[in-house]
Amino acid sequence: MSEFKLSVLDHASVSEGSTPGQALRAVRELAQHAERLGYTRFWLSEHHNMQAIASAATSVALGFVAEGTSTIRVGAGGVMLPNHSPLVIAEQFGTLESLYPGRIDLGLGRAPGTDPRTMAALRRDHNAAASFPRDVQELQAYFEPAQENQAVRAVPGEGLRVPLWILGSSLFGAQLAAHLGLPYSFASHFAPDALYEAVRVYRETFQPSEQLARPYVMLGANAFVADTDEEAQRLFTTMQQAFLGTVRGARGLLQPPVDSMDTAWRPGERERLDHMLRYSFVGSPETVRRKLELFVTDTGADEVMVSSMIYDQEARLRSYELLARAAELPGSTGRG
To answer: Where is the Luciferase-like domain (predicted)?
Structure first.
């Protein structure tokens, strides 16, 4: 298989019949599992006012994950920076880096991660996204060594140079990441439309920085791996149900898989979801290996970050184990 890194993006999904506390403990178990298998990093997403996502207090959840692991990189995928003061984020991630040195990543996005009413509850300015580039640079500056007589300093944070990433699903993020010389993560796992153009623009306009000498692209994908193609397709129906709820404006807890989605669709919904979830690799290890290798070869991705909304924790752990085997990760050798 082509050489690339493989990582995990999780949402601390709360399944029907479970609680946020159980979801967060399951997240840490998954991170420990991913670490043993040889995944490169484990990221959590920031979302608010969503029943099925328990990672709203992202930096707190990341501390819980980092405390339970020892080598895997832990980070945000990402912090929605316009929801926050750059200083507060510098302090939070400076604290994480101080406690878990050399293992913390900070992915930054400009979307709200929620709905308009919740944006108001977050006290987010509707124009905040316009200041995203400036806020990223302010955050960067807080991680640099403090200047003489500097009035505002991030403690902890200053001098720690926590690695920043720009997250995006459009050309805006690609252009900003290239301009600042930062690694770029594209959300192709749910917003595939601009994938190739964004990656092209990022690579062609990249300007080297102290953090990064050459372009580095990480792409999102969904993966559902089981012993057979049929069982993997059944696991995938949990994610299909979740996205169907999003499309209909009726989000809820993560639902158990079903044998078939054929009776669930309204006109046009299946086509819409198939497009949104285009980069979903569903099947046995051999099936997914072929799809993943084609994806990496076609895009030239340096890293693939995988999301898997699987209802049952044991099936989720098994899926990541089979995926690690398919990708020939170092920790997957000899596992049953």
So the answer is: 10-302
In a domain, 150, yes or no: yes
CA-nearest of 326, 327, 323 to 315 is 323
Domain span at 157: 5-228+280-332
Q: Please report, as a single letter, which amino acid is at residue 64.
A: F
Give the dihedral of Cα atoms 320, 321, 324, 328; nearest 10 deg.
-170
Would you write out the chain's pLDDT as a tens digit for each of its 336 residues? 568 999 999 999 999 999 999 999 999 999 999 999 999 999 999 999 989 999 999 999 999 999 999 999 999 999 999 999 999 999 999 999 999 999 999 999 998 767 778 778 887 677 777 899 999 999 999 999 999 889 999 999 999 999 999 999 999 999 999 999 999 999 999 999 999 999 999 999 999 999 999 999 999 999 999 999 999 999 999 999 999 999 998 889 999 999 999 999 999 999 999 999 999 999 999 999 999 999 999 999 999 999 999 999 999 999 999 999 999 998 887 544
Residue 223 backbone phi and psi in degrees, to 5: -140, 130
Backbone angles phi, psi at 149, to 5 degrees: 65, 20
Count other Cβ atoms within 10 Å, centred on residue 163.
18
Number of domains in the chain: 1
Q: DSSP of 59-73, one letter per residue?
A: HHHHHHHHHT-SSSE
Query: Does the global pTM surpass 0.90?
Result: yes
Does residue 262 fall inside a structural domain? no
CATH number (domain holding residue 157): 3.20.20.30
Sequence-separated (6 or more) residues with CB below 8 Å from residue 162: 93, 94, 96, 97, 104, 105, 106, 143
Does residue 122 lie within any of the structural domains?
yes
DSSP state of 131: G
Q: Residues 58, 81: contact at Cβ < 8 Å? A: no
| Residue 61 in domain | yes
Selection from 165, 192, 178 nearest residue 277 by Cα: 192
Q: Which residues pair with 283 in a beta bridge?
A: 225
